Amino acid sequence: MTLPVFLHDALAGSRVGDDVELSADEARHAAVKRIRVGEQVSLTDGVGTTALCTVTATTRPTVSLRVDEAATREPELPRVVVVQAIPKGDRGELAVEMLTEVGVDVIVPWAASRSVAVWRGDKHAKALARWRSTAREAAKQARRWWFPEVTEMVTTDAVVGLLADASVPVVLHEAASGPLADLPVPGRGEIVIVVGPEGGISDEELAAFATVGAEPVRLGSSVLRTSTAGVAATAALLARSRWR
Questions:
Q1: Are 68 and 40 in contact (CB under 8 A)?
Q2: Of 72, 67, 71, which is closest to residue 16 (Cα–Cα)?
Q3: What tens digit of pLDDT does each residue of 40-86 get?
Q4: Suppose 83 and one of 37, 108, 217, 244 were both cysteines; which one would form an S-S bond, judging by CB atoms 3.0 to 4.6 Å apart?
Q5: How far apart are CA 31 and CA 38, in angstroms?
Q6: For 52-153, where are the alpha helices, taking DSSP H only?
Q7: Domains recognised in the chain with CATH numbers
Q8: How far apart are CA 107 and CA 131, in angstroms?
Q9: pTM tops 0.90
Q10: Which pLDDT score, from 0 to 100, does residue 24 have?
């Protein structure tokens, strides 16, 4: 049976027999799941450490546990960054959920010139919080050792900088002549994938990306939605690197 997973941000250095506690949101989550004394659960800190634990007490608002096993893993390589143009409606959270499940390390919200949705003021803070919450819950569901980072929203100039520093810069565009499959995939370094909005990446943005050697590529003959293109590209590249 798959054990329930809870987030604990102070697991680093944990040893067998150590006592730990869940509090606040995670303890409430355990109560909703009716976790009882004697049950085993999995804890993760989202930065490489997980622990198998047994519940020793449930007294609101905390859950007490004993560490049975603990292990740490290094991040997988190559590192994958997806620059996701902000889509309309709830497609942003859908994209974040799937990108997290497939193994992306960093998700960068991008205010592209043709993005229909615009994050300003309170809307910016609320939308970013939803993206980060979605990534956290999807990472727990996927049993990830390292949770993805969801950065602050960036402008096109910042995207150019990310592409300039990438080992493999990828700009997805349906009109590109070259396929994604032709790109080399390193065993290390960083892959940066840029996904445009519903209206597509503008000529000015493509020109800016080209100044740092990031030429557009296509996934295939069909045009994917902005919420699914990054997932498909990531999977295609990881199948030639981490997943082999």
A1: yes
A2: 67
A3: 999 999 999 999 999 999 987 889 999 999 999 999 999 999 999 99
A4: 108
A5: 14
A6: 91-102, 121-141
A7: 5-72 (2.40.240.20), 79-238 (3.40.1280.10)
A8: 9
A9: yes
A10: 83
